[in-house]
């Protein structure tokens, strides 16, 4: 759908302070024309309003947020901000530990965790002066690509409240899209940052695995990533820079340091070698999504990019991902007392039961197949700079459904095929808006790169963003 047919956006009724980027806010903090306390109060007010409409949050902590904002104000007045995001309102997904808050993982089956320490990402954000507003909604244990749970209810898409914002970082997406905070921490084990970013017209980045430390370890293992969600590539870069780093609690991390991203290296689109991936492992792409994607390809080509059709290596990536994801779900539910399992969502119990039927040999074979796929995926970038695809094969569909109604599909993985292969490859990927479907819902474009090249992927996405698509 052409942009001029979209009459309003979820930001249109937001106060000016809630529509500002991180750089806009901190520029005004620096010159004294705005206080982090004012920005934080505006974000808190907006968060309460947004939650009432769309059910985005599971916890808000105005007292702690304003205390943090006052400390930030003092640093800015002294000319000694902690980082480029000092005083910027930020949210955390309710699956990541925040010291002093109860993290519920979207479930009623077990008590929430009263976190005695910050997760590494939260500690890094806190040290950078980010103002933590609260926790955003997630489905139970982040198991699916939409956001509803018995614990927090249904989270709704601000572009159309009858539609899902996707998931599992759906609460973060709603907060970002409506201006309830500037920076938003999401997790992505199979698309959980990128799917809701695509469904709500945001920028979401799944980093190279290990760039951002994680603790406690996810039961879903090494397909699980942590990354930023924001309204611009620049804001995502600032947040990712702060969250990147070594934490000894994360054994899966490489001990190698990652260079800073900001400022991004200049990367124009002229001459950029782009692989075009337009067929997911299962299912098909909705016609209106394909139209928006084709229009994005035309913009890239007109800007001088060189497009090459590509097919991902591997014979059945859907089954390969299921072997990792379903067994992770089985592992997660083993920690729940048997007498409480009946309180777990039926779909998650079904996935966990399927996971429990994999043998140890099956899992080792899946790990071996994944290594072969990952190696072949890495080799694709000998001749390519980035790969592009639709973010999601469909637009946001009706709430209360794991799959689009009347689609004939049974599990979310069947419509999320542009997401989970990149988790298997542990590669960086950025999603950003590229248009609208026939239903006036956002459509996203995904840029994917070689492992370690977060800067290149984000720079390519920023170059596309500059086209004004």
Question: Can you describe this structure in just a few lines?
Answer:
With 469 residues, the chain is an alpha/beta fold.
Describe, in plain words, how this protein is organized in 3D.
The protein has 469 residues and is of the alpha/beta class. It has one domain (3-465): Amidase signature (AS) enzymes, CATH 3.90.1300.10. Helix content is 36%, strand content 14%. The strands form three sheets. The protein has an eleven-stranded mixed beta sheet with strand order 1-5-2-8-10-9-14-15-13-11-12, sandwiched between helices. Strands 3-4 form a two-stranded antiparallel ribbon. It has a two-stranded antiparallel sheet with strand order 6-7. The protein is globular and about 60 Å long.
Compile the SSE list and pairings.
Blueprint: H1 16-19, H2 22-31, H3 36-54, E1 57-60, H4 62-77, E2 89-93, E3 102-103, E4 113-114, H5 120-127, E5 131-136, E6 148-149, E7 153-154, H6 170-178, E8 183-188, H7 194-200, E9 203-206, E10 225-230, H8 233-243, E11 273-276, H9 287-302, E12 306-309, H10 317-334, H11 346-356, H12 360-380, E13 386-390, H13 420-425, E14 429-436, E15 442-448, H14 454-465
Parallel strand pairs: 2-5, 2-8, 11-12, 11-13
Antiparallel strand pairs: 1-5, 3-4, 6-7, 8-10, 9-10, 9-14, 13-15, 14-15
Helix pairs in contact: 3-4, 10-11, 10-12
């Amino acid at each position: 759908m052409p942009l001029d047919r979209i009459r309003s956006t979820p930001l249109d009724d937001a106060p000016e302070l809630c529509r500002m980027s991180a750089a806009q806010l901190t520029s005004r903090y620096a010159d004294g024309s705005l206080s982090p306390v004012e920005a934080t109060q505006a974000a808190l007010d907006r968060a309460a309003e947004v939650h009432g409409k769309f059910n985005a949050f599971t916890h808000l902590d105005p007292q702690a947020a304003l205390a943090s904002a006052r400390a930030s104000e003092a640093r800015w007045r002294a000319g000694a901000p902690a980082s480029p995001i000092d005083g910027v309102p930020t949210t955390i997904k309710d699956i990541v530990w925040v010291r002093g808050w109860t993290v519920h993982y979207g479930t009623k089956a077990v008590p929430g965790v009263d976190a005695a320490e910050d997760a590494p990402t939260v500690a890094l954000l806190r040290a950078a002066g980010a103002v933590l507003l609260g926790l955003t909604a997630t489905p139970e244990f982040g198991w699916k690509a939409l956001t509803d749970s018995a614990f927090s209810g249904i989270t709704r898409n601000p572009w159309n409240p009858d539609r899902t914002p996707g998931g599992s970082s759906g609460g973060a997406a709603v907060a970002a899209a409506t201006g309830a905070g500037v920076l938003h921490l999401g997790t992505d084990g199979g698309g959980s940052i990128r799917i809701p970013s695509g469904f709500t017209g945001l920028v979401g980045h799944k980093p190279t695995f290990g760039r951002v430390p994680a603790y406690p370890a996810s039961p879903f293992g090494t397909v699980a990533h942590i990354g930023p969600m924001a309204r611009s590539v620049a804001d995502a870069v600032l947040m990712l820079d702060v969250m990147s780093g070594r934490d000894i609690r994360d054994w899966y991390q490489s001990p190698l340091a990652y260079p800073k991203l900001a400022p991004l290296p200049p990367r124009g689109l002229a001459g950029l070698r782009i692989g075009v991936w337009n067929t997911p492992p299962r299912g098909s792409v909705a016609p209106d999504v394909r139209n928006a994607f084709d229009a994005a390809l035309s913009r890239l080509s007109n800007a001088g990019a060189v497009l090459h059709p590509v097919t991902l290596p591997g014979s059945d990536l859907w089954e390969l991902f299921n072997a990792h994801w379903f067994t992770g779900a089985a592992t997660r539910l083993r920690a729940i007392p048997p007498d409480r399992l009946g309180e777990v969502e039926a779909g998650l119990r079904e996935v966990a039961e399927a996971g429990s039927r994999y043998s140890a040999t099956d899992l080792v074979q899946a790990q071996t197949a994944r290594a072969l796929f990952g190696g072949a995926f890495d080799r694709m970038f000998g001749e390519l700079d980035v790969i592009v695809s639709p973010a999601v094969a469909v637009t946001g569909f009706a709430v209360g459904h794991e799959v689009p109604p009347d689609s004939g599909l049974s599990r979310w993985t069947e419509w999320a095929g542009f997401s989970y292969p990149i988790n298997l490859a542990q590669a960086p990927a950025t999603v950003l808006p590229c248009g609208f479907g026939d239903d006036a819902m956002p459509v996203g474009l995904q840029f994917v790169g070689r492992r370690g090249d977060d800067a290149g992927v984000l720079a390519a996405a920023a170059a596309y963003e500059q086209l004004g698509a």
